[in-house]
């Protein structure tokens, strides 16, 4: 029987962790861009657009991410479309991330006082100008901490993609366990790596929150 | 022709008719105070004049710009008439100077240099030239309201609407704001102000409008309205005020 050193295990896990990082980045950036587009519809004047985004958010927030991954992976397969695991994983996570970010951001836009809309309107600004120069600069300040905080959820969400066969950190953990028969060591390391990825994010969310609040008070 | 012409204006919120046919003409350079109990429709009337509320019936014209609910007409109207709010509504993420510069640059496309020069002049005019770089939360309520006035003036409106602009201020800060308004009036600015400052209305205004239950109940020069109220409603309202 082959023996594995701790370094063998860790090295393999770290190699797979790269894919966790890549998938997280793709999901977060893709979800962020899609989220912005959805936000534009969600707070816009067209009723159809608002209703569409409302339905979208309900759908993706109201079903487990795992089901969404299954549907993306197996569902499209039923129609004869061969979806590789990485594509299904990326697609589902982008859609899922966008559904949460758009609601976080909508809350931030709506937290800007009504008087700001009225004052800018009475100075003659149009909707786009109000958004661009008055509302969004204030909303962004409110949005940064919860957005960074949500990125932690995205990183942890990528673990589910192991079930459809995408080899990231969790999947690598299973594979390595099957080879080494040392589940406690392996999953312990997996957990540590996840923690090392997530903790700086949640910490920076806290720091940003404090910083931006102070900035808001005193500049 | 009057600068502001309000004709048979009706406005309802759901089942409540808050304005029941208002007629009011304001001449160029005139200073008009609107008084009345809360709920009498005075703030709503003011907010209709620059299109923050839409009217259900009648018409409002300011210097040839009519209140019509589309972006182009609203912009044209709002360039003629500025507004100052009870809660100041300065943009908190911008310095005082930037607050005054922003709409000039964005709405009128004034170059930054010119906008800044105008902002400095207007801040000077309200006595805050030295606060150009201060942020709103570094200013007192009275100072914030004066920046708001400078911001409205920088758009060079023909008339200003003042919606209870001293009601959110500590008593010792009220006078510095009223002094600025008084100066504007002396300079010939057309003003329509909803106010609870009866003494100020008496001193500065050309005409006083008493609103009651969505109607103009009494109107006239301040000596008449305050000195010789004709209706029991106005007498009762004035009796309830502390200082007249």
Give an overview of the whole structure.
The complex is a heterodimer of chains A (219) and B (244). Chain A is 82% helix and 0% strand. Chain A has 219 residues and is mainly α. Chain A starts with 5 loop residues before the first helix and ends with a helix. Chain B is α/β, with parallel strands linked by helices and 244 residues long. Chain B has one domain: P-loop containing nucleotide triphosphate hydrolases (Rossmann fold, 3-Layer(aba) Sandwich). Chain B is 39% helix and 25% strand. Chain B has a six-stranded mixed β-sheet with strand order 6-7-8-3-9-10, sandwiched between helices. In chain B, strands 2-1-4-5 form a four-stranded antiparallel β-sheet, with helices on one face. In chain B, helix 6 (171-186) links the parallel strand 7 and strand 8 (190-194). The relative contact order of chain B is 0.17. The model of chain B has no long low-confidence stretch (mean pLDDT 94). At the A-B interface, helix 5, helix 6 and helix 8 of A face helix 2, helix 3 and helix 5 of B.
SSE topology sketch:
The complex is a heterodimer of chains A (219) and B (244).
Chain A: H1 6-42, H2 47-61, H3 65-78, H4 85-110, H5 114-122, H6 127-157, H7 169-180, H8 183-218
Helix pairs in contact in A: 1-2, 1-4, 1-6, 1-7, 1-8, 2-4, 3-4, 4-6, 5-6, 6-8, 7-8
Chain B: E1 4-13, E2 16-26, E3 31-36, H1 42-49, E4 57-62, E5 65-66, H2 71-80, E6 81-84, H3 96-107, H4 112-125, H5 141-153, E7 159-163, H6 171-186, E8 190-194, H7 198-204, E9 207-212, E10 215-220, H8 222-227, H9 232-240
Family (chain B): Belongs to the ABC transporter superfamily.
Membrane topology (chain B): Peripheral membrane protein
Pfam family, one (chain B): ABC_tran
């Amino acid at each position: 029987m082959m023996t594995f050193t701790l370094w063998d295990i860790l090295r393999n896990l770290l190699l797979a962790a790269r894919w966790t990082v890549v998938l997280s980045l793709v999901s977060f950036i893709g979800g962020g861009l899609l989220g912005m587009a959805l936000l534009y519809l969600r707070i816009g004047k067209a009723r159809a657009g608002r209703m569409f985004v409302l339905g979208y958010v309900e759908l993706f927030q109201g079903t487990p991410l795992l089901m969404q991954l299954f549907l993306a992976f197996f569902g499209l397969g039923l129609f004869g479309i061969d979806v590789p695991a990485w594509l299904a994983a990326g697609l589902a996570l982008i859609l899922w991330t966008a559904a949460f970010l758009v609601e976080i951001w909508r809350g931030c836009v709506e937290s800007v006082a009504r008087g700001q809309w009225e004052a800018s309107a009475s100075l003659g600004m149009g909707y786009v100008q109000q958004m661009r120069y008055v509302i969004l600069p204030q909303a962004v300040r409110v949005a940064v901490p919860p957005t960074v905080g949500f990125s932690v959820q995205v990183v942890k969400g990528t673990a589910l993609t192991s079930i459809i066969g995408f080899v990231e950190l969790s999947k690598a953990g299973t594979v390595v366990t099957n080879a080494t028969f040392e589940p406690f060591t392996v999953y312990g390391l997996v957990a540590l790596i996840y923690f090392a990825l997530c903790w700086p994010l949640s910490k920076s969310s806290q720091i940003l929150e404090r910083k931006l609040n102070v900035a808001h008070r005193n500049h | 022709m009057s600068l502001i012409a309000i004709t048979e204006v009706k406005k309802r919120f759901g089942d409540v008719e808050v304005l029941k046919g208002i007629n009011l003409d304001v001449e160029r350079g005139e200073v008009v105070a609107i008084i009345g109990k809360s709920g009498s429709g005075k703030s709503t009337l003011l907010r209709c004049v620059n299109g923050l509320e839409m009217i259900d019936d009648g018409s409002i014209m300011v210097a040839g710009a009519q209140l019509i609910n589309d972006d182009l007409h609203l912009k044209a109207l709002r360039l003629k008439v500025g507004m100052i709010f009870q809660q100041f509504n300065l943009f908190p993420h911008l310095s005082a100077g930037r607050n005054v510069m922003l709409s000039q640059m964005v709405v009128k496309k004034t170059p930054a240099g010119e906008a800044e020069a105008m902002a400095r002049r207007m801040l000077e005019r309200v006595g805050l030239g030295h606060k150009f770089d201060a942020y709103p939360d570094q200013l007192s309520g009275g100072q914030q309201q004066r920046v708001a006035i400078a911001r409205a003036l920088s758009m060079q409106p023909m008339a200003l609407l003042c919606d209870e602009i001293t009601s959110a201020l500590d008593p010792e800060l009220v006078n510095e704001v009223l002094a600025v308004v008084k100066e504007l009036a002396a300079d010939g600015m057309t003003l329509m102000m909803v106010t609870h400052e009866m003494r100020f209305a008496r001193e500065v205004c050309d005409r006083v409008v008493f609103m009651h239950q969505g109607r103009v109940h009494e109107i006239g020069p301040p000596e008449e309205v305050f000195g010789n109220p004709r209706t029991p409603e106005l007498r009762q309202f004035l009796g309830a005020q502390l200082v007249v």
